[in-house]
Amino acid sequence: MSVEFYNAITWTLAIGVLAAAVFAIVSLLFVVLRWKTPARRKHVRRFLFALVTIPCLIGIQQAIVWFVFLPAIGRQQVEKFEAARAESHSSTSFVGIGDPVPQFSATTADGDQFSINEAAGDVVLINFFATWCGPCRAELPHIEQIWTDRGNDPHFRLLVIGREETNESVVEFRESNGFSFPIAADPDRDIYSLFASELIPRTLVISPGGTIVYSKVGFVDSDLEELNNILDEQLAQFR
Mean of the pLDDT values across residues 54-81? Predict the structure, then answer.
């Protein structure tokens, strides 16, 4: 529903309420003037009809606001947000869905070696974050849950990478938040620059064939269902 259409309906209902109020006043006046005549019953019915009509029209207007107009505006805002988000993702990404994952290696905070080349054949989830990033902090507990649910799967690999972070800062961050997922530092953007020019959090899923099958920038709760579905679909290949 457009704003213009909503305004037209609102004005129409407002005129209806005003007309009903005037009709009620006139009917009440005739009730008083003709109280001692048989016609008073007709005017009483008209007065009561007008009184009922006013709240009904107001109720219709409120129903349109809460059940039609506001949901429509909400959907439009979501569509605009997602369009802007997609544009930001496209304009800042060097690789996207369907592209081969860039080759890189990293040493995790636990001293383990992670190589995307050696991870070929597995499903890989990569997340770029920074300790100061609010949306990253909102997303990472969900990444931790994914690790808790799938970390024992031999075909699942996960690496959370701290963009412009040191090994010390990512270790402290992980410990202070009670996370257990594998984490690595990328102080000079050596890894991040293979994927994008800016914007975090940035989350990607790599198929066993080494192709990017999921790529998102930023975080909203609605991403989680899609992310989990993609992971389940990819891991289902091994069952």
Answer: 80
